[in-house]
Amino acid sequence: MANNKEVFLSFRGGTRFQFTDHLYHALLRSGINTFRDDERVKSGDKLEPLLMKAIQNCKMAIVVLCEDYASSTWCLKELVKIIECHEKHGKQVLAIIYRVKPSDVWEQKGSYEKALAILEKREDPEKVKAWRLALSKIQKWFKVEDFSKAGDELMLTRWVLCTEDICYSIVDVL
Q1: Beta strands 7-10 and 34-35: pairing type?
Q2: What residues are labeled active site?
Q3: pLDDT tens-place values along the chain, 174 residues long
Q4: Distance between CA atoms of 11 and 154, rounded to whole angstroms?
Q5: From CA 72, how far away is CA 78, in angstroms rounded?
Q6: What is the pTM of this model?
Q7: Under a CB-based contact definition with an 8 Å cutoff, are residues 13 and 67 in contact?
Q8: Which reaction does it catalyse (predicted)?
Q9: Rounded to whole angstroms, how far apart are CA atoms 30 and 9?
Q10: DSSP string, 35-91
Q11: Integer Rg of the chain from CA
């Protein structure tokens, strides 16, 4: 399942049947072999090791940061692994800011601040610290596309795939 994927798509479930689904299918139509977490998991497989292996094995990660991304420990674990692979192996990363104020993501304001405050009460403080650090690195390290005032999902997906900079970003690493 996690082998031979060129792009790992990290996203929160709320965008699954909207922007992320359009993006996923557009990538596939463009011949870009893409992993997303709803692919069939074999019986008995543990999800976390499969996700971490998929992140390690891909050539590029696309992270769709939406309003409730930080409320998912799964998403935050993926992000930490993506950052680790970027730091250690130079993995290319494209961060898409989707329907959330960009500074809320890296400064952990608004919904990100609320979600992390909740997680701080129930999760290991070291994990939360790592998640905060990963979020703060997005602006500095990665190509960021801002769709904070997004409208038509399909139009955005076409823009993502047709914008020259992003196409080069994806093609350059594949």
Answers
A1: parallel
A2: 78
A3: 444 578 999 998 777 777 888 888 888 887 888 888 765 554 445 778 888 999 999 988 999 988 899 999 999 999 999 999 999 998 888 888 888 888 899 899 999 999 999 999 999 999 999 999 999 998 776 555 555 555 545 545 554 544 434 444 454 444
A4: 17
A5: 10
A6: 0.81
A7: no
A8: NAD(+) + H2O = ADP-D-ribose + nicotinamide + H(+)
A9: 15
A10: E-TTSPPPTT--HHHHHHHHHHH-SEEEEEE-TTGGG-HHHHHHHHHHHHHHHHH--
A11: 15
Residue 171: which residues within 8 A CB-CB, separation 6 or more? Answer: none
Q: Is there a contact between 139 and 124 (Cβ–Cβ < 8 Å)?
A: no
Q: Report the C-alpha gap between 1 and 117 in whole angstroms.
A: 34
CA dihedral over 91, 96, 97, 98, signed as positive or negative: negative
Query: Do the beta carbons of residue 148 and residue 100 sit within 8 Å?
Result: yes
The residue to which tokens 């960021």 are assigned: 144
Token representation of residue 61: 């990660």
- Name all domains of the chain by residue range, CATH numbers in brackets: 7-173 (3.40.50.10140)
Any idea which residue has 């993926």 for tokens? 78
